[in-house]
């Protein structure tokens, strides 16, 4: 999660919402891919940190199925990202801060609990959640200042 927080900080420094994600192989501890939010800079509304990391992991491994891997992300995934996580067959999702407005894992539509969800990863929330939440709050506080 520390690597994801570093990626989130890099996103903030680039003017993006500070969210970072890391795909890890739990069998070896290898960091397979890292992603940071970049929809503004890439002109791509789907360039959330999770999507960026999943794409990089799939490219590196030569397979769109990422079965058994763990995704660490600093913020609870949205519905789009939860859908991508399910399609990729990620084995476990660990997230930091909950997102009561836009989250879709433990809040909102709870994508992995829907009967139409074909793959349900294990989910653990709140890991370094206060730190991840403060990074987001600080980013938006600074943007609201006159």
Walkthrough of the structure:
The structure is a single chain. Helix content is 38%, strand content 19%. It is α/β, with parallel strands linked by helices and 146 residues long. It has a 5-stranded mixed beta sheet.
Structural features:
5 strands; 5-stranded mixed beta sheet; alpha/beta; 146 residues
Question: In a nutshell, what does this entry contain?
Answer:
With 146 residues, this protein is of the alpha/beta class.
Note the gap between the termini: 33 Å
Shape designation: globular
Strand elements, count: 5
Mean pLDDT, to the nearest integer, reads 97
Q: Strand share of the residues?
A: 15-25%
Based on CA atoms alone, the radius of gyration comes out at 14 Å
Order of helices and strands: HEEHHEHEEH
Structural class category: alpha/beta
Biggest β-sheet, characterized? 5 strands, mixed
Tally of individual helices: 5
Strand arrangement, major sheet = 2-1-3-4-5
* Fraction of helical residues: 25-40%
List the helices and strands and how they pair.
Blueprint: H1 2-13, E1 20-25, E2 30-36, H2 39-42, H3 49-61, E3 70-75, H4 79-88, E4 92-97, E5 122-124, H5 129-144
Parallel strand pairs: 3-4, 4-5
Antiparallel strand pairs: 1-2, 1-3
Helix pairs in contact: 1-5
């Amino acid at each position: 999660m520390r690597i994801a927080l570093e990626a989130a900080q890099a996103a903030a420094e680039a003017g993006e919402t500070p969210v970072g994600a890391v795909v890890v192989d739990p069998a070896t501890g290898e960091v397979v891919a890292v992603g940071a939010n970049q929809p503004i800079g890439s002109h791509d509304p789907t360039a959330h940190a999770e999507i960026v990391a999943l794409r990089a992991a799939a490219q590196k491994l030569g397979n769109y199925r990422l079965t058994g891997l763990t995704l660490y992300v600093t913020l609870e995934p949205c519905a789009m990202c939860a859908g991508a996580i399910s399609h990729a067959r990620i084995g476990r999702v660990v997230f930091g801060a909950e997102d009561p407005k836009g989250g879709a894992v433990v809040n909102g539509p709870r994508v992995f609990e829907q009967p139409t969800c074909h793959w349900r990863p294990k989910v653990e929330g709140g890991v370094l959640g206060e730190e991840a939440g403060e990074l987001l709050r600080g980013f938006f506080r600074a943007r609201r200042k006159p």
